[in-house]
Amino acid sequence: MATPLSDTPLSPFKTIAVVGLGTMGTGIAEVLAKAGREVVGIDISEAATAKAVATLEAATARAVERGRLTDQERTDVLARVRTSTDLSAAAEADLVIEVAPESYETKHQIFRALDEVVRPETILATGTNALSVTRLAADSARPERVLGLHFFNPAPAMKLVEVVSSVLTAPAAVAAVTDLAVELGKEPVAVGDRPGFVADGLLFGYLNQAAAMYEAKYASREDIDAAMRLGCGLPMGPLALLDLIGIDTARTVLDAMYAESRDRLHAPAPILKQLSEAGLTGRKSGRGFYTYEAPGGATVVPDALTPLSGGLDIPGRTVRSVGVAGSGTMASGIAEVFAKAGYEVVLAARSEEKAQAAKARIGKSLSRSVDKGRMTAEAAAQTLERITPAGSYDSFAEVDLAVEAVAEDLEIKQQLFATLDKVCKPGAVLATTTSSLPVIACARATSRPQDVIGMHFFNPAPAMKLVEVVRTVLTGDDVHSTVREVCVKIKKHAVECGDRAGFIVNALLFPYLNNAIKMVQEHYASLDDIDAAMKLGGGYPMGPFELLDVVGLDVSLAIEKVLHREFRDPGLAPAPLLEHLVAAGCLGRKTGRGFREYARR
Protein backbone atom coordinates (compact mmCIF):
# COMPACT_ATOMS: atom_id res chain seq x y z
CA MET A 1 0.00 0.00 0.00
CA ALA A 2 1.39 3.44 -0.96
CA THR A 3 2.38 5.75 1.88
CA PRO A 4 -0.05 8.72 2.20
CA LEU A 5 1.65 11.71 0.61
CA SER A 6 0.76 14.04 3.48
CA ASP A 7 2.63 11.76 5.94
CA THR A 8 5.88 11.66 3.99
CA PRO A 9 8.24 14.63 3.67
CA LEU A 10 8.95 15.25 0.01
CA SER A 11 12.44 14.57 -1.22
CA PRO A 12 14.48 17.48 -2.56
CA PHE A 13 14.82 15.39 -5.74
CA LYS A 14 18.50 14.61 -5.52
CA THR A 15 18.19 11.75 -8.02
CA ILE A 16 15.90 12.11 -11.02
CA ALA A 17 15.22 9.49 -13.70
CA VAL A 18 14.35 10.57 -17.24
CA VAL A 19 12.55 7.87 -19.22
CA GLY A 20 12.82 8.37 -22.97
CA LEU A 21 16.03 9.82 -24.39
CA GLY A 22 14.87 11.50 -27.54
CA THR A 23 15.55 15.19 -28.14
CA MET A 24 13.32 16.32 -25.28
CA GLY A 25 14.47 13.71 -22.77
CA THR A 26 18.13 14.43 -23.50
CA GLY A 27 17.50 18.17 -23.12
CA ILE A 28 15.79 17.66 -19.76
CA ALA A 29 18.65 15.46 -18.59
CA GLU A 30 21.10 18.24 -19.49
CA VAL A 31 19.08 20.83 -17.54
CA LEU A 32 18.92 18.59 -14.47
CA ALA A 33 22.61 17.66 -14.51
CA LYS A 34 23.67 21.29 -14.88
CA ALA A 35 21.50 22.09 -11.84
CA GLY A 36 23.42 19.54 -9.74
CA ARG A 37 20.97 16.63 -9.83
CA GLU A 38 22.01 13.02 -10.25
CA VAL A 39 20.35 11.89 -13.49
CA VAL A 40 19.46 8.40 -14.65
CA GLY A 41 18.64 8.43 -18.35
CA ILE A 42 16.61 5.40 -19.44
CA ASP A 43 15.64 4.24 -22.92
CA ILE A 44 14.87 0.80 -24.33
CA SER A 45 17.21 1.56 -27.24
CA GLU A 46 20.96 1.34 -26.68
CA ALA A 47 21.41 3.54 -29.75
CA ALA A 48 19.24 6.20 -28.09
CA THR A 49 21.25 6.13 -24.86
CA ALA A 50 24.52 6.36 -26.80
CA LYS A 51 23.17 9.26 -28.86
CA ALA A 52 22.01 11.03 -25.68
CA VAL A 53 25.47 10.78 -24.14
CA ALA A 54 27.10 12.07 -27.32
CA THR A 55 24.60 14.96 -27.45
CA LEU A 56 25.34 15.87 -23.83
CA GLU A 57 29.08 15.75 -24.46
CA ALA A 58 28.73 18.03 -27.49
CA ALA A 59 26.38 20.46 -25.72
CA THR A 60 28.62 20.81 -22.69
CA ALA A 61 31.69 21.21 -24.92
CA ARG A 62 29.96 24.12 -26.67
CA ALA A 63 29.12 25.60 -23.28
CA VAL A 64 32.83 25.51 -22.34
CA GLU A 65 33.79 27.18 -25.65
CA ARG A 66 31.27 29.97 -24.95
CA GLY A 67 32.50 30.46 -21.40
CA ARG A 68 29.29 29.19 -19.80
CA LEU A 69 30.99 26.22 -18.11
CA THR A 70 34.54 25.55 -16.97
CA ASP A 71 36.26 22.30 -17.93
CA GLN A 72 35.82 21.04 -14.36
CA GLU A 73 32.12 21.94 -14.33
CA ARG A 74 31.67 20.08 -17.62
CA THR A 75 33.36 17.01 -16.17
CA ASP A 76 31.08 17.19 -13.11
CA VAL A 77 27.93 17.56 -15.22
CA LEU A 78 28.77 14.53 -17.36
CA ALA A 79 29.65 12.50 -14.25
CA ARG A 80 26.17 13.15 -12.85
CA VAL A 81 24.50 11.41 -15.79
CA ARG A 82 24.34 7.66 -16.20
CA THR A 83 22.21 5.74 -18.68
CA SER A 84 20.45 2.40 -18.78
CA THR A 85 18.09 0.38 -20.97
CA ASP A 86 16.30 -1.10 -17.95
CA LEU A 87 13.51 0.69 -16.02
CA SER A 88 14.76 -0.87 -12.80
CA ALA A 89 17.53 1.75 -12.92
CA ALA A 90 14.86 4.20 -11.68
CA ALA A 91 14.56 2.34 -8.35
CA GLU A 92 16.36 4.99 -6.30
CA ALA A 93 14.93 8.04 -8.08
CA ASP A 94 13.07 10.67 -6.05
CA LEU A 95 11.32 11.87 -9.21
CA VAL A 96 10.76 10.17 -12.57
CA ILE A 97 10.06 12.27 -15.66
CA GLU A 98 8.60 10.24 -18.53
CA VAL A 99 9.04 11.64 -22.05
CA ALA A 100 8.29 8.58 -24.15
CA PRO A 101 6.41 8.82 -27.50
CA GLU A 102 2.85 10.22 -27.36
CA SER A 103 0.99 6.93 -27.00
CA TYR A 104 -1.34 5.96 -24.14
CA GLU A 105 -0.35 2.34 -24.49
CA THR A 106 3.39 3.11 -24.27
CA LYS A 107 3.02 5.53 -21.36
CA HIS A 108 0.61 3.22 -19.52
CA GLN A 109 3.10 0.36 -19.73
CA ILE A 110 5.89 2.60 -18.41
CA PHE A 111 3.82 3.85 -15.47
CA ARG A 112 2.66 0.35 -14.49
CA ALA A 113 6.26 -0.88 -14.66
CA LEU A 114 7.46 2.08 -12.58
CA ASP A 115 4.87 1.26 -9.90
CA GLU A 116 6.73 -2.01 -9.37
CA VAL A 117 10.17 -0.39 -9.32
CA VAL A 118 10.22 2.96 -7.52
CA ARG A 119 9.84 3.77 -3.84
CA PRO A 120 6.35 4.62 -2.48
CA GLU A 121 7.25 8.29 -2.03
CA THR A 122 8.63 8.80 -5.55
CA ILE A 123 6.73 11.28 -7.72
CA LEU A 124 5.96 10.29 -11.30
CA ALA A 125 5.72 13.06 -13.91
CA THR A 126 4.67 12.72 -17.53
CA GLY A 127 6.01 15.08 -20.16
CA THR A 128 2.98 14.62 -22.43
CA ASN A 129 1.62 17.63 -24.25
CA ALA A 130 -1.43 15.89 -25.72
CA LEU A 131 -2.62 13.00 -23.56
CA SER A 132 -4.71 12.98 -20.38
CA VAL A 133 -2.64 13.14 -17.20
CA THR A 134 -5.73 12.05 -15.26
CA ARG A 135 -6.06 8.88 -17.31
CA LEU A 136 -2.39 8.03 -16.76
CA ALA A 137 -2.75 8.76 -13.03
CA ALA A 138 -5.86 6.60 -12.70
CA ASP A 139 -3.96 3.68 -14.21
CA SER A 140 -1.20 4.08 -11.62
CA ALA A 141 -1.03 2.50 -8.15
CA ARG A 142 -0.17 5.97 -6.78
CA PRO A 143 -2.46 8.45 -8.60
CA GLU A 144 -1.89 11.19 -6.00
CA ARG A 145 1.80 11.23 -6.97
CA VAL A 146 1.27 11.49 -10.73
CA LEU A 147 1.30 14.86 -12.48
CA GLY A 148 2.36 16.50 -15.71
CA LEU A 149 5.66 18.31 -16.18
CA HIS A 150 5.66 19.74 -19.69
CA PHE A 151 8.99 21.20 -20.81
CA PHE A 152 9.34 22.98 -24.15
CA ASN A 153 11.84 22.23 -26.88
CA PRO A 154 14.78 22.88 -26.70
CA ALA A 155 14.56 22.24 -22.95
CA PRO A 156 17.91 23.87 -22.05
CA ALA A 157 16.87 27.17 -23.69
CA MET A 158 13.11 27.40 -23.16
CA LYS A 159 12.07 28.92 -19.82
CA LEU A 160 8.48 27.71 -19.66
CA VAL A 161 7.41 24.60 -17.76
CA GLU A 162 3.72 23.73 -17.41
CA VAL A 163 2.96 21.93 -14.13
CA VAL A 164 -0.21 19.93 -14.75
CA SER A 165 -2.48 18.73 -11.95
CA SER A 166 -5.22 16.14 -12.29
CA VAL A 167 -8.13 15.90 -9.86
CA LEU A 168 -6.17 13.09 -8.21
CA THR A 169 -2.86 14.94 -7.74
CA ALA A 170 -1.82 15.84 -4.19
CA PRO A 171 -1.07 19.58 -3.73
CA ALA A 172 2.23 18.74 -2.00
CA ALA A 173 3.45 16.96 -5.14
CA VAL A 174 2.57 19.98 -7.27
CA ALA A 175 4.35 22.31 -4.85
CA ALA A 176 7.50 20.16 -4.80
CA VAL A 177 7.75 19.93 -8.58
CA THR A 178 6.99 23.65 -8.95
CA ASP A 179 9.85 24.44 -6.56
CA LEU A 180 12.13 22.20 -8.62
CA ALA A 181 11.22 24.05 -11.82
CA VAL A 182 12.15 27.35 -10.17
CA GLU A 183 15.46 25.88 -8.96
CA LEU A 184 16.18 24.80 -12.55
CA GLY A 185 15.84 28.43 -13.65
CA LYS A 186 12.49 27.81 -15.32
CA GLU A 187 9.23 29.73 -15.04
CA PRO A 188 6.47 27.30 -14.02
CA VAL A 189 2.80 27.93 -14.73
CA ALA A 190 0.08 25.92 -13.01
CA VAL A 191 -2.54 24.41 -15.31
CA GLY A 192 -5.29 21.81 -15.19
CA ASP A 193 -5.49 18.65 -17.24
CA ARG A 194 -6.77 19.11 -20.75
CA PRO A 195 -5.12 18.34 -24.11
CA GLY A 196 -2.51 20.89 -25.09
CA PHE A 197 -2.65 22.55 -21.65
CA VAL A 198 -2.17 26.33 -22.15
CA ALA A 199 0.62 26.96 -24.65
CA ASP A 200 -0.02 24.08 -27.04
CA GLY A 201 -3.77 24.33 -26.47
CA LEU A 202 -3.69 27.83 -27.96
CA LEU A 203 -0.81 27.29 -30.37
CA PHE A 204 -2.03 24.16 -32.15
CA GLY A 205 -5.49 25.54 -32.92
CA TYR A 206 -3.78 28.46 -34.65
CA LEU A 207 -1.37 26.16 -36.52
CA ASN A 208 -4.28 23.99 -37.64
CA GLN A 209 -6.16 26.98 -39.05
CA ALA A 210 -3.05 28.10 -40.92
CA ALA A 211 -2.73 24.63 -42.47
CA ALA A 212 -6.40 24.72 -43.50
CA MET A 213 -5.94 28.21 -44.97
CA TYR A 214 -3.05 26.95 -47.09
CA GLU A 215 -4.95 23.80 -48.08
CA ALA A 216 -7.83 25.98 -49.33
CA LYS A 217 -5.32 27.81 -51.58
CA TYR A 218 -6.39 31.09 -49.99
CA ALA A 219 -2.78 32.22 -49.72
CA SER A 220 0.67 30.77 -50.43
CA ARG A 221 2.75 29.14 -47.71
CA GLU A 222 5.31 31.98 -48.00
CA ASP A 223 2.64 34.68 -47.64
CA ILE A 224 0.92 33.00 -44.68
CA ASP A 225 4.24 32.69 -42.85
CA ALA A 226 5.40 36.22 -43.73
CA ALA A 227 2.05 37.69 -42.68
CA MET A 228 2.25 36.20 -39.18
CA ARG A 229 5.92 37.06 -38.71
CA LEU A 230 5.58 40.66 -39.86
CA GLY A 231 2.02 41.30 -38.73
CA CYS A 232 2.32 39.76 -35.24
CA GLY A 233 6.07 39.82 -34.57
CA LEU A 234 6.28 36.04 -34.31
CA PRO A 235 9.69 34.38 -34.61
CA MET A 236 8.38 31.84 -37.18
CA GLY A 237 5.41 31.53 -39.47
CA PRO A 238 2.88 28.78 -38.67
CA LEU A 239 3.71 26.45 -41.57
CA ALA A 240 7.46 26.67 -40.94
CA LEU A 241 6.73 25.99 -37.26
CA LEU A 242 4.64 22.92 -38.14
CA ASP A 243 7.62 21.62 -40.12
CA LEU A 244 9.87 22.20 -37.11
CA ILE A 245 7.52 20.55 -34.60
CA GLY A 246 6.77 17.64 -36.92
CA ILE A 247 3.53 17.40 -38.87
CA ASP A 248 2.83 13.94 -37.43
CA THR A 249 3.29 15.29 -33.89
CA ALA A 250 0.95 18.19 -34.61
CA ARG A 251 -1.67 15.82 -35.95
CA THR A 252 -1.43 13.67 -32.77
CA VAL A 253 -1.88 16.73 -30.53
CA LEU A 254 -4.83 18.01 -32.56
CA ASP A 255 -6.49 14.58 -32.59
CA ALA A 256 -6.31 14.52 -28.77
CA MET A 257 -7.63 18.07 -28.50
CA TYR A 258 -10.51 17.39 -30.87
CA ALA A 259 -11.43 14.14 -29.10
CA GLU A 260 -12.04 16.16 -25.95
CA SER A 261 -13.30 19.53 -27.22
CA ARG A 262 -15.17 18.53 -30.40
CA ASP A 263 -14.32 22.07 -31.50
CA ARG A 264 -13.97 22.15 -35.28
CA LEU A 265 -10.97 24.46 -34.89
CA HIS A 266 -9.12 21.46 -33.43
CA ALA A 267 -10.21 18.92 -36.05
CA PRO A 268 -6.91 18.25 -37.87
CA ALA A 269 -6.84 19.80 -41.35
CA PRO A 270 -6.86 16.97 -43.93
CA ILE A 271 -3.51 18.13 -45.33
CA LEU A 272 -1.86 17.21 -42.01
CA LYS A 273 -3.04 13.62 -42.40
CA GLN A 274 -2.02 13.51 -46.06
CA LEU A 275 1.49 14.80 -45.38
CA SER A 276 1.96 12.55 -42.33
CA GLU A 277 0.87 9.41 -44.12
CA ALA A 278 3.14 10.26 -47.06
CA GLY A 279 6.08 10.50 -44.65
CA LEU A 280 6.42 14.24 -45.29
CA THR A 281 6.64 15.13 -41.62
CA GLY A 282 8.66 18.34 -41.86
CA ARG A 283 12.30 19.09 -41.18
CA LYS A 284 13.06 15.66 -39.74
CA SER A 285 12.13 13.97 -43.04
CA GLY A 286 13.50 16.74 -45.25
CA ARG A 287 10.10 17.75 -46.58
CA GLY A 288 6.78 18.97 -45.19
CA PHE A 289 5.13 22.24 -46.14
CA TYR A 290 8.59 23.26 -47.38
CA THR A 291 11.48 21.26 -48.82
CA TYR A 292 14.79 21.17 -46.92
CA GLU A 293 18.37 20.67 -48.02
CA ALA A 294 18.60 17.44 -46.01
CA PRO A 295 16.57 15.51 -43.42
CA GLY A 296 16.98 17.23 -40.07
CA GLY A 297 18.25 20.40 -41.71
CA ALA A 298 16.85 23.92 -41.42
CA THR A 299 17.82 25.29 -44.85
CA VAL A 300 14.81 25.62 -47.17
CA VAL A 301 15.49 24.90 -50.83
CA PRO A 302 13.30 25.85 -53.81
CA ASP A 303 10.72 23.35 -55.00
CA ALA A 304 7.81 23.29 -57.45
CA LEU A 305 5.72 25.54 -55.16
CA THR A 306 8.38 28.24 -54.69
CA PRO A 307 7.20 31.56 -56.22
CA LEU A 308 9.16 32.79 -59.22
CA SER A 309 11.34 35.80 -58.44
CA GLY A 310 10.75 37.64 -61.72
CA GLY A 311 8.70 40.80 -62.20
CA LEU A 312 4.93 40.98 -62.60
CA ASP A 313 3.53 39.78 -65.94
CA ILE A 314 1.18 42.75 -66.32
CA PRO A 315 2.60 46.25 -65.85
CA GLY A 316 0.90 48.51 -63.34
CA ARG A 317 -0.37 52.05 -63.73
CA THR A 318 1.84 55.05 -63.03
CA VAL A 319 1.45 56.46 -59.51
CA ARG A 320 2.95 59.86 -58.72
CA SER A 321 0.46 61.29 -56.26
CA VAL A 322 -1.54 59.64 -53.49
CA GLY A 323 -4.67 60.71 -51.65
CA VAL A 324 -5.19 59.48 -48.09
CA ALA A 325 -8.71 59.80 -46.66
CA GLY A 326 -9.03 60.08 -42.90
CA SER A 327 -7.55 61.95 -39.96
CA GLY A 328 -6.85 59.25 -37.37
CA THR A 329 -3.65 57.47 -36.39
CA MET A 330 -3.81 55.03 -39.31
CA ALA A 331 -4.48 57.70 -41.92
CA SER A 332 -1.65 59.95 -40.73
CA GLY A 333 0.71 56.95 -40.51
CA ILE A 334 -0.08 55.91 -44.10
CA ALA A 335 0.36 59.46 -45.34
CA GLU A 336 3.76 59.58 -43.63
CA VAL A 337 4.79 56.30 -45.29
CA PHE A 338 3.93 57.56 -48.79
CA ALA A 339 5.53 60.98 -48.25
CA LYS A 340 8.75 59.38 -47.00
CA ALA A 341 8.85 57.32 -50.20
CA GLY A 342 8.74 60.49 -52.30
CA TYR A 343 5.07 60.59 -53.29
CA GLU A 344 3.07 63.82 -53.30
CA VAL A 345 0.32 63.23 -50.74
CA VAL A 346 -3.08 64.87 -50.28
CA LEU A 347 -4.35 64.18 -46.76
CA ALA A 348 -8.10 64.83 -46.75
CA ALA A 349 -10.47 64.76 -43.81
CA ARG A 350 -14.02 65.90 -43.10
CA SER A 351 -12.73 69.34 -42.17
CA GLU A 352 -9.63 71.45 -42.82
CA GLU A 353 -9.03 71.55 -39.06
CA LYS A 354 -8.93 67.74 -38.78
CA ALA A 355 -6.60 67.49 -41.77
CA GLN A 356 -4.22 70.08 -40.28
CA ALA A 357 -4.23 68.20 -36.95
CA ALA A 358 -3.33 64.98 -38.78
CA LYS A 359 -0.45 66.71 -40.56
CA ALA A 360 0.75 68.10 -37.21
CA ARG A 361 0.74 64.54 -35.85
CA ILE A 362 2.95 63.48 -38.77
CA GLY A 363 5.29 66.39 -38.00
CA LYS A 364 5.71 65.14 -34.44
CA SER A 365 6.37 61.61 -35.68
CA LEU A 366 9.04 62.86 -38.08
CA SER A 367 10.63 64.91 -35.30
CA ARG A 368 10.92 61.77 -33.17
CA SER A 369 12.64 60.03 -36.09
CA VAL A 370 15.11 62.91 -36.31
CA ASP A 371 15.74 62.79 -32.55
CA LYS A 372 16.48 59.05 -32.81
CA GLY A 373 18.85 59.56 -35.70
CA ARG A 374 16.67 57.70 -38.21
CA MET A 375 16.47 60.62 -40.64
CA THR A 376 17.96 64.09 -41.05
CA ALA A 377 16.08 67.24 -40.19
CA GLU A 378 16.25 68.22 -43.88
CA ALA A 379 14.69 64.91 -44.99
CA ALA A 380 11.95 65.31 -42.37
CA ALA A 381 11.16 68.82 -43.57
CA GLN A 382 11.01 67.66 -47.22
CA THR A 383 8.73 64.77 -46.26
CA LEU A 384 6.33 67.09 -44.45
CA GLU A 385 6.30 69.50 -47.41
CA ARG A 386 5.01 66.73 -49.66
CA ILE A 387 1.82 66.45 -47.57
CA THR A 388 -1.05 68.79 -48.44
CA PRO A 389 -3.92 68.84 -45.94
CA ALA A 390 -7.43 69.31 -47.31
CA GLY A 391 -10.92 69.60 -45.85
CA SER A 392 -12.70 68.04 -48.83
CA TYR A 393 -12.34 64.88 -50.92
CA ASP A 394 -12.66 67.06 -54.02
CA SER A 395 -8.90 67.53 -53.55
CA PHE A 396 -8.44 63.96 -54.82
CA ALA A 397 -9.35 64.97 -58.37
CA GLU A 398 -5.84 64.39 -59.76
CA VAL A 399 -4.40 61.65 -57.49
CA ASP A 400 -3.32 58.38 -59.08
CA LEU A 401 -4.03 56.30 -55.97
CA ALA A 402 -6.65 57.02 -53.28
CA VAL A 403 -6.33 55.12 -49.98
CA GLU A 404 -9.14 55.34 -47.46
CA ALA A 405 -8.43 54.94 -43.72
CA VAL A 406 -11.73 56.05 -42.17
CA ALA A 407 -13.83 54.34 -39.49
CA GLU A 408 -14.27 50.55 -39.71
CA ASP A 409 -17.94 50.86 -40.62
CA LEU A 410 -19.21 49.47 -43.92
CA GLU A 411 -21.83 52.15 -44.48
CA ILE A 412 -19.29 54.94 -43.93
CA LYS A 413 -16.79 53.30 -46.26
CA GLN A 414 -19.40 52.71 -48.97
CA GLN A 415 -20.43 56.37 -48.83
CA LEU A 416 -16.79 57.39 -49.14
CA PHE A 417 -16.20 55.10 -52.14
CA ALA A 418 -19.28 56.53 -53.85
CA THR A 419 -17.72 59.97 -53.34
CA LEU A 420 -14.29 58.84 -54.59
CA ASP A 421 -15.98 57.39 -57.67
CA LYS A 422 -17.25 60.88 -58.50
CA VAL A 423 -14.17 62.96 -57.67
CA CYS A 424 -11.24 60.76 -58.74
CA LYS A 425 -10.08 60.80 -62.34
CA PRO A 426 -10.58 57.77 -64.61
CA GLY A 427 -7.79 55.23 -64.09
CA ALA A 428 -7.14 56.16 -60.46
CA VAL A 429 -6.72 53.14 -58.18
CA LEU A 430 -9.08 53.14 -55.17
CA ALA A 431 -7.87 51.23 -52.10
CA THR A 432 -9.43 50.42 -48.73
CA THR A 433 -7.43 49.71 -45.58
CA THR A 434 -10.24 47.71 -43.97
CA SER A 435 -9.08 44.90 -41.69
CA SER A 436 -12.33 42.96 -41.55
CA LEU A 437 -14.99 44.25 -43.96
CA PRO A 438 -15.59 42.89 -47.50
CA VAL A 439 -13.59 44.82 -50.08
CA ILE A 440 -16.14 43.88 -52.75
CA ALA A 441 -18.84 45.77 -50.85
CA CYS A 442 -16.71 48.93 -51.14
CA ALA A 443 -16.04 48.19 -54.82
CA ARG A 444 -19.75 47.80 -55.62
CA ALA A 445 -20.40 51.29 -54.26
CA THR A 446 -18.52 52.59 -57.32
CA SER A 447 -19.08 52.40 -61.06
CA ARG A 448 -15.55 50.97 -61.48
CA PRO A 449 -15.16 47.93 -59.23
CA GLN A 450 -12.20 46.78 -61.35
CA ASP A 451 -10.21 49.73 -59.93
CA VAL A 452 -10.84 48.82 -56.26
CA ILE A 453 -8.46 46.74 -54.11
CA GLY A 454 -7.63 46.20 -50.44
CA MET A 455 -4.38 47.54 -48.95
CA HIS A 456 -4.45 46.53 -45.30
CA PHE A 457 -1.68 48.38 -43.46
CA PHE A 458 -0.84 47.53 -39.86
CA ASN A 459 -0.60 49.97 -36.98
CA PRO A 460 1.72 51.87 -36.57
CA ALA A 461 2.01 52.10 -40.36
CA PRO A 462 5.48 53.76 -40.44
CA ALA A 463 6.97 50.90 -38.37
CA MET A 464 5.04 47.82 -39.50
CA LYS A 465 6.45 46.23 -42.68
CA LEU A 466 3.38 44.24 -43.73
CA VAL A 467 0.62 45.11 -46.19
CA GLU A 468 -2.09 42.59 -47.04
CA VAL A 469 -3.05 43.07 -50.70
CA VAL A 470 -6.64 41.93 -51.09
CA ARG A 471 -8.06 41.24 -54.55
CA THR A 472 -11.76 40.89 -55.16
CA VAL A 473 -13.18 38.77 -57.99
CA LEU A 474 -13.56 42.01 -59.96
CA THR A 475 -10.15 43.65 -59.32
CA GLY A 476 -8.21 44.30 -62.52
CA ASP A 477 -4.83 42.63 -63.05
CA ASP A 478 -3.17 45.98 -63.74
CA VAL A 479 -4.60 47.39 -60.49
CA HIS A 480 -3.13 44.44 -58.61
CA SER A 481 0.25 45.02 -60.31
CA THR A 482 0.07 48.73 -59.46
CA VAL A 483 -0.37 48.10 -55.76
CA ARG A 484 2.37 45.46 -55.70
CA GLU A 485 4.78 47.94 -57.33
CA VAL A 486 3.75 50.67 -54.89
CA CYS A 487 4.41 48.35 -51.93
CA VAL A 488 7.97 47.84 -53.17
CA LYS A 489 8.50 51.62 -53.45
CA ILE A 490 7.20 52.31 -49.95
CA LYS A 491 9.39 49.44 -48.62
CA LYS A 492 6.56 47.25 -47.40
CA HIS A 493 6.29 43.46 -47.70
CA ALA A 494 3.12 42.65 -49.62
CA VAL A 495 1.26 39.39 -49.07
CA GLU A 496 -1.61 38.28 -51.28
CA CYS A 497 -4.98 36.98 -50.21
CA GLY A 498 -8.55 36.85 -51.36
CA ASP A 499 -11.47 38.89 -50.10
CA ARG A 500 -12.77 37.08 -47.04
CA ALA A 501 -13.17 38.08 -43.40
CA GLY A 502 -9.93 38.68 -41.49
CA PHE A 503 -7.72 38.19 -44.55
CA ILE A 504 -4.62 36.33 -43.27
CA VAL A 505 -3.49 37.89 -40.01
CA ASN A 506 -6.78 38.63 -38.26
CA ALA A 507 -8.33 35.35 -39.45
CA LEU A 508 -5.54 33.47 -37.64
CA LEU A 509 -4.92 35.86 -34.74
CA PHE A 510 -8.39 36.52 -33.36
CA PRO A 511 -9.59 32.91 -32.92
CA TYR A 512 -6.40 32.36 -30.90
CA LEU A 513 -7.19 35.42 -28.75
CA ASN A 514 -10.79 34.27 -28.35
CA ASN A 515 -9.65 30.82 -27.18
CA ALA A 516 -7.38 32.45 -24.60
CA ILE A 517 -10.38 34.38 -23.24
CA LYS A 518 -12.35 31.12 -23.01
CA MET A 519 -9.55 29.60 -20.89
CA VAL A 520 -9.88 32.43 -18.35
CA GLN A 521 -13.66 32.36 -18.55
CA GLU A 522 -13.59 28.63 -17.69
CA HIS A 523 -11.15 29.27 -14.79
CA TYR A 524 -8.63 26.95 -16.43
CA ALA A 525 -5.65 29.29 -15.98
CA SER A 526 -4.97 32.85 -14.92
CA LEU A 527 -4.35 35.85 -17.18
CA ASP A 528 -0.77 36.07 -16.00
CA ASP A 529 -0.05 32.37 -16.54
CA ILE A 530 -1.56 32.38 -20.03
CA ASP A 531 0.39 35.50 -21.04
CA ALA A 532 3.59 34.01 -19.61
CA ALA A 533 2.97 30.67 -21.35
CA MET A 534 2.57 32.24 -24.78
CA LYS A 535 5.57 34.55 -24.43
CA LEU A 536 7.88 31.89 -23.00
CA GLY A 537 6.52 28.82 -24.76
CA GLY A 538 5.41 30.28 -28.08
CA GLY A 539 7.84 33.16 -28.58
CA TYR A 540 5.02 35.70 -28.80
CA PRO A 541 6.16 39.30 -28.21
CA MET A 542 3.01 39.92 -26.14
CA GLY A 543 0.68 37.59 -24.28
CA PRO A 544 -2.90 37.40 -25.58
CA PHE A 545 -4.36 39.58 -22.83
CA GLU A 546 -1.65 42.22 -23.16
CA LEU A 547 -2.41 42.31 -26.89
CA LEU A 548 -6.20 42.44 -26.44
CA ASP A 549 -5.89 45.43 -24.11
CA VAL A 550 -3.62 47.22 -26.60
CA VAL A 551 -5.81 46.50 -29.64
CA GLY A 552 -8.98 47.43 -27.77
CA LEU A 553 -11.64 44.99 -26.61
CA ASP A 554 -14.32 46.71 -28.70
CA VAL A 555 -12.20 46.38 -31.85
CA SER A 556 -11.45 42.75 -31.00
CA LEU A 557 -15.12 41.97 -30.44
CA ALA A 558 -16.09 43.58 -33.76
CA ILE A 559 -13.55 41.43 -35.64
CA GLU A 560 -14.64 38.28 -33.78
CA LYS A 561 -18.25 38.97 -34.80
CA VAL A 562 -17.28 39.43 -38.45
CA LEU A 563 -15.33 36.14 -38.46
CA HIS A 564 -18.19 34.27 -36.79
CA ARG A 565 -20.76 35.75 -39.19
CA GLU A 566 -18.74 34.84 -42.27
CA PHE A 567 -17.51 31.34 -41.37
CA ARG A 568 -20.54 30.26 -39.25
CA ASP A 569 -18.25 28.16 -37.06
CA PRO A 570 -19.53 27.82 -33.44
CA GLY A 571 -15.92 27.82 -32.23
CA LEU A 572 -15.53 31.39 -33.56
CA ALA A 573 -18.43 32.79 -31.49
CA PRO A 574 -17.05 35.63 -29.33
CA ALA A 575 -16.38 34.55 -25.74
CA PRO A 576 -19.15 35.91 -23.46
CA LEU A 577 -16.50 37.39 -21.14
CA LEU A 578 -15.30 39.63 -23.98
CA GLU A 579 -18.84 40.77 -24.69
CA HIS A 580 -19.45 41.51 -21.00
CA LEU A 581 -16.30 43.61 -20.65
CA VAL A 582 -17.15 45.65 -23.76
CA ALA A 583 -20.71 46.18 -22.50
CA ALA A 584 -19.22 47.44 -19.21
CA GLY A 585 -17.05 49.96 -21.07
CA CYS A 586 -13.82 48.12 -20.18
CA LEU A 587 -12.12 48.46 -23.56
CA GLY A 588 -8.45 48.08 -22.63
CA ARG A 589 -5.66 50.59 -22.26
CA LYS A 590 -7.62 53.41 -23.90
CA THR A 591 -10.21 53.37 -21.08
CA GLY A 592 -7.80 52.44 -18.27
CA ARG A 593 -9.34 49.03 -17.78
CA GLY A 594 -9.74 45.91 -19.89
CA PHE A 595 -8.56 42.51 -18.78
CA ARG A 596 -6.20 44.44 -16.49
CA GLU A 597 -6.33 47.89 -14.91
CA TYR A 598 -3.98 50.67 -16.04
CA ALA A 599 -2.90 53.91 -14.44
CA ARG A 600 -4.59 56.81 -16.18
CA ARG A 601 -2.23 59.37 -17.72
**Helicity range of the residues?**
40-55%
Q: What gyration radius follows from the Cα positions, in whole Å?
A: 28 Å
At the third CATH level, what is the topology name of the largest domain? Rossmann fold
Into how many domains do the coordinates divide? 4
Number of discrete helical segments: 22
Query: How would you sum up the global shape?
Result: elongated
Strand order, sheet with most strands: 3-2-1-4-5-6-7-8
CATH architecture of the largest domain: 3-Layer(aba) Sandwich
How many strand units?
18
Largest sheet: 8 strands, mixed
| The CATH fourth-level homologous superfamily of the largest domain | NAD(P)-binding Rossmann-like Domain
Beta-strand fraction estimate: 5-15%
- By secondary-structure content and strand pairing, the structural class works out as alpha/beta
* Unreliable sequence segments: 1-11
CATH class of the largest domain reads: Alpha Beta
Instruction: Give the end-to-end Cα distance, rounded to a whole number of Å.
Output: 62 Å
Mean pLDDT: 94
